[in-house]
Structures are given as structure tokens and as C-alpha cells.
TrEMBL record:
Its EC number is 3.1.2.4. Keywords: Hydrolase. This is 3-hydroxyisobutyryl-CoA hydrolase. CDD domains: crotonase-like. One of its GO terms (cellular component) is cytosol. It comes from Tsukamurella strandjordii. It holds the Pfam family ECH_2. It catalyses: 3-hydroxy-2-methylpropanoyl-CoA + H2O = 3-hydroxy-2-methylpropanoate + CoA + H(+). PANTHER family: 3-HYDROXYISOBUTYRYL-COA HYDROLASE, MITOCHONDRIAL, 3-HYDROXYISOBUTYRYL-COA HYDROLASE-RELATED. The keyword Hydrolase applies. Signal peptide: none annotated. Gene3D superfamilies: 2-enoyl-CoA Hydratase, Chain A, domain 1. The keyword Mitochondrion does not apply.
């Protein structure tokens, strides 16, 4: 079975993520296959748009195959080629000169965000759940996510990056992560219609529906996560009311403190940077984080043993050394 299935039909280049048992977690071969298809179609006049879909009923893409990266780190092997190639593919997707439509009908996290949210049309169903959960494993939101998070409404990018908050369809539309809503039951027909050459805007309107209501109180999120420093935000979220704040506190309790501070810094800087600059910085800072013990420990606790009891160092936000954070993010 091929993990990436590509085809051209109705003027549409179709990339289907086809590793359902692993929730389409991206391997290096998958990254290369996606990039090769994009390169082939970029100048092909027979392809007028690109459609990205998933063969999994549960997920669009649960992220990168981070366990494989952990194995490379433990074995002392060079892990950087995966990230280099993945980020090149993310950038190609973002700069693609034709419409890129992602049908997000399920969980979409980490690396999956990089293969969807950079596109021109991000179509979500009521089953969509978008998150960048890297702080839970001692890493950072990458695949250009710092660029995306840095451009969301005030505080939302910091909330998502620092707490791994999961955003549903209504909120994704409200903050600009998604562009269109189509009910899950219509996603298959939308895909088929586009592969038959149907007009994009007409098809989205035809199969669209009423999206779930947004639930994030954006003014409250801004008042907390829009504050000027990570310590100020952490203090404020500790006192904030509402289910969203309670969830944030719960997720921060098991997040890697170093990753939380690094993520705050990169998201804030990203607002003034281009996507290529953000990807370059993610590569440099990410490599530093992967070499820290927190990364291997985080993956052990979350993905290998699944005990959800990571022993990070430093273990608390109060123990964070600002100088270490400055060195990790380059000042």
C-alpha cells in the first residue's frame, strides 16, 4: 500500500494521505512524494489546482512521524534531513501558484497543519480538530506554524502554541485557520465533484452548510495571552475564568516549560517575519530542542509509554532560566 496516492482528474492534482493506521503521520517518504507531486504540477497546464485529502475516517493528519525522529536521536543519527525536506515542502505548498484545497475532516495536528493550513482553501467539517501539540513533547510548533500562529487574532496563536489548545471548526473559521465549512457527510461528494472538474467556488457553496458556533471568547483570550511576557501570561491564565482557561491550565500542567517559553518567543517574533524566515528559525531552534533530554523524555511519556508523566528539566515554569531561553531562540 502506498502512503501517498497521487492522481490527476478534472484538472485537479489529487494528493491523498493514505496511512490510516498511523493517522497519516508523515514519514520522510511521504514528504518526498508530496513535494514531488507539487513540483510536477506547478508548471503543468493540465493541472489547475491541487486537492489534499485523507483516506482515514478519523484524521486528516496527526503530525510527523516523531517517534522515528526520537529513534534517530537515541541512536545518535542525523535527524535534520527530515525537517529540511519537510520545511521545503511546506514552503512549496504555501507559494504554490494555483489553488490548494485541503479537506480537513478529522484530527489535524503538527505536521498535518503544514500540509493544509498553508493552502489557499482550508475546508473543515464538524469533525475537524486543529492543534499544534509540540510543547507536550519538548519541541516547538514548526512546519511554519509560528508564522501562522503569529498572525491569528491577539493571543490566539500564543494560546494554541503554548498550551496545545485544540481548535474546532467554528473557532478555526472565526480566527482564520479555516476558510470554508462543509459537513462531514458532504466531504466525499465535494471531493468527487472537484475531481470531475467542478467549479471550486460553486462546489464549496453547494456542499457547504452552517458551521458550528465558535466557542473561544476572543476578548478574554486576548486579555490573557496577549500580555507582554510568558510569565505574565502564565500568571494570568492561573486566575482566568471559563472552560477555555481551565483547559489551558490542565494542558500547561504537563507541557515542557522550556518549550512553552521558547514557543512564546517565536510566535511573538513571527509577526514581523516572512514564512521562509520563520521556517529557517524553526529549523535552528528545533534542532537545539531535539538535542535536549526533554524531547526524548516527552516522546517517551506521550507516544511510547503513553503514561503522560514526563519528567522535564527544568520541571516548572518558576525554574526557567531566561538566559537559557535567550540562547535557544538566539537572543
Amino acid at each position: 500500500m502506498t502512503d501517498i496516492v497521487t492522481s490527476v482528474s478534472g484538472g485537479t492534482g489529487h494528493i491523498e494521505l493514505n496511512r490510516p493506521k498511523a493517522l497519516n503521520a508523515l514519514t520522510m517518504d511521504m514528504v518526498h512524494a508530496i513535494d514531488a507531486a507539487l513540483q510536477a504540477w506547478e508548471s503543468d497546464d493540465a493541472v489547475t489546482r491541487v486537492l489534499l485529502t485523507s483516506a482515514s475516517p478519523k484524521a486528516y493528519c496527526a503530525g510527523g512521524d516523531i517517534r522515528a525522529i526520537r529513534d534517530q536521536v537515541v541512536a545518535g543519527e542525523d535527524f535534520t534531513p527530515f525537517f529540511r525536506d519537510e520545511y521545503e515542502m511546506n514552503l512549496r505548498l504555501a507559494e504554490f501558484p494555483k489553488p490548494v484545497i485541503a479537506l480537513i475532516d478529522g484530527v489535524n495536528m503538527g505536521g498535518g497543519v503544514g500540509v493544509s493550513i498553508h493552502g489557499s482553501h482550508r475546508v473543515v467539517s464538524e469533525k475537524a480538530l486543529i492543534a499544534m501539540p509540540e510543547v507536550a513533547i519538548g519541541f516547538l510548533p514548526d512546519v511554519g506554524a509560528t508564522y501562522i500562529l503569529g498572525r491569528l487574532p491577539e493571543g490566539v496563536g500564543e494560546l494554541m502554541g503554548m498550551t496545545a489548545a485544540r481548535i474546532g471548526a467554528g473557532d478555526a473559521l472565526a480566527v482564520g485557520l479555516a476558510t470554508h465549512f462543509v459537513p462531514s457527510e458532504n466531504m466525499g461528494e465535494l471531493k468527487d465533484t472537484l475531481l470531475e472538474g467542478g467549479d471550486l467556488d460553486e462546489s464549496l457553496a453547494r456542499f457547504g452548510g452552517t458551521a458550528p458556533a465558535a466557542s473561544l471568547p476572543l476578548d478574554q483570550v486576548a486579555a490573557v495571552f496577549g500580555l507582554g511576557s510568558a510569565p505574565e501570561i502564565l500568571a494570568a491564565v492561573g486566575q482566568a475564568d471559563g472552560d477555555w482557561a481551565a483547559t489551558a491550565r490542565e494542558q500547561l500542567a504537563t507541557a515542557c516549560p522550556t518549550s512553552v517559553f521558547v514557543t512564546f518567543s517565536l510566535v511573538r517574533k513571527a509577526a514581523e517575519r516572512t514564512l521562509p524566515q520563520c521556517l529557517a528559525e524553526e529549523a535552528v531552534v528545533g534542532a537545539k530542542l531535539i538535542r535536549r533530554p526533554d524531547f526524548v523524555e516527552g516522546i517517551r511519556a506521550v507516544l511510547v509509554d503513553k503514561t503522560r508523566d514526563p519528567k522535564f528539566s527544568p520541571a516548572s515554569f518558576d525554574e526557567i532560566d531566561p538566559q537559557e531561553i535567550a540562547e535557544l531562540v538566539g537572543g
